Amino acid sequence: MDFGISEDQILLEETLRSFLSDRVPIERVRELRHEDCPNDPEIWQSLAELGMTGILLPEQSGGSDLGLLDACIAAQSLGHAVTPTPFLGSAVMVPTALKNLDHPEIGTWLSGIASGELRFGVAITETFSVREGAGLTISGGKISGKAMMSWDICGADFILIASGQDRLAVVRSDAEGIGQTRLATTDETRCTSELTLENVECAATFENASESISRMLDAGRIALAADCLGACEAMIEQAVAYAKERKQFERVIGSFQAVKHMCAEMISELEPARALVWYAAHSFDAVPNETPLLACHALSHVSEIGREIASVSTQVHGGIGWTDEQNLHFWFKRIGVARGLLGGPQWLRERAATLQGLDKAS
Amino acid sequence: MDLSYGQKYEEFRMEVRSFLEENKPLQSESPLSSGRRQRLVEWLSLQIEHGYWARTIPKKYGGYGAEPDLLETVIMDEEFNRAGIPRGMSSQGPSMLVPTLLEHGSEEQRLRWISPTMRGEITWCQGYSEPGSGSDLASLQTSAKEDGDDFLISGQKIWTSTADRSQMIFILVRTEPDAPKHSGISYILLPMDTPGIEVQPLRTMSGDLGENSFNQVFFTDVRVPQVNVVGKRGEGWRIANTTLKHERNSLNANSEGTMIKLMRLMERETCNGVSAMASPVFRDRLMQLQARSMAMKFHAMRMVTCSLRDEAPGVAGLVTKLRNCQLNFDISSLAIDVMGELGALYDHTPYERDLGYWQAHSFFSLGLIIGGGTAQIQKNIISERGLGMPREPKPAKA
């Protein structure tokens, strides 16, 4: 019995964190938010060199064939550093969806992701949330409609699009008939767009892909929970460090019980949530029948404690925490926006209940 | 990550399981009620003989004498839980005094007390808190004055569970009144029938004077031989801290069973012809609790792994009591909300649900949030020892 991360996983985390603090410090994140899109191709290329973009891909695609727990360690580090990157879509969700599907191009695409040459955007929101008249239809190898809140479309080579609950399509991002409108979000480390498609030629379509879609969404939910957990971790570290330095009433504020108890509350919520995310990620490869429920619980639970941690750790900083200059808001907003992605806590909990048949009660 | 136990442990699990199936009729649900004492002693002795109780206590002290093996402990806990049979007996003698004697007691004390305590022949209570010394336990004032080879103990203890039915007490007293507060305390064992001891029951908010009895204990010139001190005179604070550590470890109650009971209640409980489970609002709260309960379950597995790997768990090892106690309180809160106005019913009134379990559970878990180191003391420990934040400075003396 061994419930915990391995030495290799600790090494992976150390490697990635030292790369990020060196190459993508918060000063770099501040610069990137002024770009048209914060996803820096150089970061993606470096992540590929570190083996991160192919983390879930088989060796024949140039990947390292690791599990979702490893991918979550990476996601957690990226959240910890609020790194702008299409990792979640391109390195977690797209490989999960495509690697069990059949199409002659898939091998090329997956190798391209592993080597860093290709990036994918994802347009999957409508599988669980249809708003603003969005929705997509595939007919005769062509796709039409509108996708809201698509991820990482800028600079993507291909886009993975879901139509309904059981159909997937891959389109070239420069295919004729695609319209993209970048939507500004509170979280400036993400690239979010509205996508319109008019009779766009698909590079591939997949029927009866409901299993692939739900595995992709589960992997995405668990990795997003890990990203959010990493951001929470970073916020608590900053709050504790600040409380040990900042003096008021001739004492460091961290010696006041009011402040200490805020920090104790936050860390006592974070540590058990870490174990929940670990188990959810482990289940994805080891006990997949448990994964759908755990993915819901991991993401909704981390969203709940995340909102509190984001708020309280900002409050520990007092007024300075509310300024742009202090940078805390990058983490606050990363956590805040994650809450609405891939379902949102209320929807995820209702799904958790449905998966257990509890909604059938009369 | 490897959640299998391996063949050796799975065989051990099967042994435990078949032992429990064979001996189920022997289990005693109420270890402390006097009429069942003999059955309890027989049941505990049988468990010791097979190594399911007092497993790692050396044979010469009446134990089974196995090497400590955490996974065996986890498996025994799981299997007893699964069978719905309490493992051994839960009482402060086995859980707190015995580990303390093994660590700090004299050979004579170990030989005399451990075996009858583990067999349930002797019940112990714990005399720590005083009316003026709660969170600041080291300020305790119950005094023990030297009188020849004896001490004369005077003072008052409070929150003393099972004092009214215990034969013995382990108690903290001030033996060195002139020493600094932490180094003037000694840890002493004495019989509850010693002249000068008076026990007064203390009714709690649960109204319960049964299984979880609470008491105040008054001491007036109670004579106890000095050889009853555990460890050295003046070292009681350090020794008690090892005992408190054992208490905190024993408060890691698993909420899985309570969650299942809550789900059954929500399926049964109907209002306006609709069950609570059919209400999306209640279901949402249930799912929040289920996620928290799972997180605590996996957290416990992580902590076991830290011990197996001989790794320090760091701050993660300090948060369990705080989070589990709050979770248990929140679970009973949902159960009572689900009952609506009938949630008020108590004390074996008609229409009471689950025999009043949820109301009692709510009161009891509130007690656990406070007892064994309040939530606020836990947060001090988490922030100071876990996060390295500074202690509250002492106010300047006027």
Oligomer state equals heterodimer
Radius of gyration of chain B: 23 Å
Indicate the CATH class of the largest domain in chain B: Mainly Alpha
The CATH superfamily of the largest domain in chain A turns out to be Butyryl-CoA Dehydrogenase, subunit A, domain 3
Low-confidence stretches of chain A: none
The sequence of SSEs of chain B as H and E is HHHHHEEEEEEEEHHEEHHHH
- The SS-based structural class of chain A is alpha+beta
Specify the CATH class of the largest domain in chain A.
Answer: Mainly Alpha
Radius of gyration of chain A: 20 Å
How would a textbook summarize the main sheet of chain A?
4 strands, mixed
Gap between N and C termini of chain A: 41 Å
3D shape of chain B: globular
Number of continuous helical runs of chain B: 11
CATH architecture of the largest domain in chain B: Up-down Bundle
CATH architecture of the largest domain in chain A: Up-down Bundle
Largest interface, with counts of residues having CB < 8 Å to the other chain, equals:
A-B, 51 and 58 residues
Low-confidence stretches of chain B: 28-33
Structure description:
The complex is a heterodimer of chains A (362) and B (398). Chain A is of the alpha+beta class and 362 residues long. Chain A has 3 domains: 7-115, Butyryl-Coa Dehydrogenase, subunit A, domain 1 (Orthogonal Bundle), CATH 1.10.540; 120-208, Butyryl-CoA Dehydrogenase, subunit A, domain 2, CATH 2.40.110.10; 211-360, Butyryl-CoA Dehydrogenase, subunit A, domain 3, CATH 1.20.140.10. Helix content of chain A is 50%, strand content 15%. Chain A contains 11 helices and 10 strands. In chain A, the strands form 3 sheets. Chain A has a 4-stranded mixed β-sheet, covered by helices on one side. In chain A, strands 2-3-7-6 form a 4-stranded antiparallel β-sheet, with no helix packed on it. In chain A, helix 7 (210-245) runs antiparallel to helix 8 and helix 9 runs antiparallel to helix 10 (328-338). The longest helix of chain A has 36 residues, at 210-245. The model of chain A has no long low-confidence stretch (mean pLDDT 97). Chain B is of the alpha+beta class. Chain B folds into 3 domains: 7-88, no CATH class; 124-236, Beta Barrel (Butyryl-CoA Dehydrogenase, subunit A, domain 2); 251-386, Butyryl-CoA Dehydrogenase, subunit A, domain 3, CATH 1.20.140.10. Chain B has helices at residues 7-23, 37-50, 70-83, 92-104, 107-118, 236-250, 256-268, 280-309, 320-338, 357-370, 375-386; strands spanning 124-127, 143-147, 150-158, 168-174, 185-191, 197-201, 215-225, 229-230, 270-271, 274-275. Chain B has a 4-stranded mixed β-sheet. In chain B, strands 2-3-7-6 form a 4-stranded antiparallel β-sheet, with no helix packed on it. In chain B, strands 9-10 form a two-stranded antiparallel sheet. Mean pLDDT of chain B is 90; it is low at 28-33. Classes of the chains: A alpha+beta (362), B alpha+beta (398). Chains A and B meet through helix 7, strand 10, helix 8, helix 9 and helix 11 of A and helix 7, strand 10, helix 8 and helix 11 of B.
